[in-house]
Amino acid sequence: MNHFKKGIVCLSASWLFSTSSLHAADTLRVGYFPNITHAQALVGLANGTFQKALGDTPIDVKTFTAGPSAVEALFANAIDLAYIGPGPAINGFVKSNGDIVVIAGACSGGASLVVRSGFIVDGSKGNYTFHGKRIATPQIGGTQDIALRHWLQKNGLAPVEKGGDVQVLPMANADQLTLFAQNQLDAAWAPEPWATRLVVEGKGLIFIDERDLWPNRQFATTVIVVRKKYLQEHPDVVEKWLTAHVNVTNWIKEHPDMARALVNQEIKRITTKALPDAVIAQAWDRLELTVNPLKHSLERNATDAFDLGFLGRTRPDLSGLVDLTLLNKVLASKGRPPVAP
Fold this sequence. Notes:
With about 350 residues, this protein is of the alpha/beta class. It has helices at about 15-20, 40-45, 50-55, 65-75, 85-95, 145-155, 175-180, 195-200, 230-235, 235-255, 255-270, 275-285, 295-305, 325-335; strands at about 30, 60-65, 80-85, 100-110, 110-115, 135, 165-170, 185-190, 205-210, 220-225, 285-290.
């Protein structure tokens, strides 16, 4: 049985509700993006590691292009587990009153603010002005969108809708690249491999490697979330998934060349277009795959999102956002130290 879906799945709330009843209770329905920051999902589903770990439990796969869409699917009970960015993960936890929880990490790093080279005066970052510029992010309220808006705020800038003169334009990564190449965008805060594509194909320059804004250059780019109801009803299935996730993470680190090739193969299968070798090689070097969800960075993401008005009027209680019980059980079974809570 082929559990892969062709193409990018765009899901409306009505469709999600109408189809959720078609799935057996013990099926694990998984969402992820065709991005290298979701490498474990791409590799583990392609080489059968996840299905082998789950045994007779079917895996139903859906692909997305941005975190808020995946969270909508979680809300609608159309998927059970997802690889998403910290912004949507936190937003999902808050809006669901704790029904969506983070159970592991997947990727650190791998996001940058890229500018068109024509807007650099004399090649000096110090002479670059963002006043009046058009800057793209993948989706409003997404991880890179929050990162950009927070950075603007810290640097005395503001989007047009907040009384400033910077146009923040949420749009799909592919559209960013097209408009970037046509000189219709000045910059974009993008995840990999899109940041590198903006550099290689769009002739852009990395203005900020987001790792430079974080302690030890580590921040969560991708985490694994699960619906709490599914976790409570099927902890054995979730534990098996996490066991495979840890194994795939280790395999990728030990076989980077093979992993990159498999990731690119899957990106081509899903999007119909593979990444140029130069793109995937550069992008790979800007991220770190890890099972640690880097909770400290999630907490800072939540603070930034709240300060920007994305999490309501009352500062949210994040206790229960991260549940590492099963992950640490898996790590202990492998003789590895636990991830600190």
